[in-house]
Specification:
Rossmann fold; four-stranded parallel beta sheet; single chain; 11 helices
Length: 301
Amino acid sequence: MWWVSQPLWAKTVVVTLPPLGALIAPFLDDNDRLVVLLNQGASPHGFEFRPSQRMAVSEADVLVSVGTPVDVWANDAFAQAHDQGAQWVRMTDSASVFYPKRGLLETSPQAAHDHHDHHHHEGEDDGHIWLSPTNASAFLNAFAKHWSVNTPQATAQRLETSLAALSSQVDALARQLSPVSERPYLVLHDAYQYFEKHFNLNYQGAIQLSPMIRPGVRHVLELREKIASNGIQCVFKDPQFPQRQVAYVVKDLSVRIGTLDPLGHTLWPDAEAIRADEATLPYARFLQALADGYTQCLAPT
């Protein structure tokens, strides 16, 4: 078998999650290599490296992670590669929006729409910070600073184009989501508050705090009461996890089941799919898919 090596000037970038790859893809040249560790079918809960992935990390020029417990499984391997000379870019280093973890049920309308940011507290915050458009914009700027060492002019142009695409997409999504922003809903897994709070959506609770822990009978009864009394018309599931817990909660109730994908696996099963995405900024298409999930399920019956 013949192996085609990269040109000497080409770079290998390893990212933990698909949305991170979707943010940096516009900066890469055709000869650069993108590796996504958490491909379709894998979960951040209990992730284990394959030998080929460990090799990619050891050969990487740039490593990209969220920097929260969501991808803590990559820290040891990334730290070792960083010690050997690889750059390591963490989203937490540039992010400005952090929210504390929530309980299973919102207890007041004010809590559902609380927009006060606070300083990052490791382990206490909701780790899904890549779902914040504000954090995504800051990360684009931070990554560009690392990448511009090699191609400053091209990087500056790509950054400007990416930021403009993100801003335009966010404005369009605000208009799209406004008609359904007050409609209450539940989620299987509480992963979306950075997106929800940016667009003023009306989250009412989650079926489970952890995908690894089955909800108790008391909590299921509370959820069913909330669905019946609060006019909740949609419960969102994640494609990464079985639907049976959602089906258990909504059994015999008049409620829709929608899908939200916080990892982008339905858009990009692997790194090749991200590189093949023709969007100006693939991450903007990720935000669009989330918005479509909300509007389709929350639209008037």
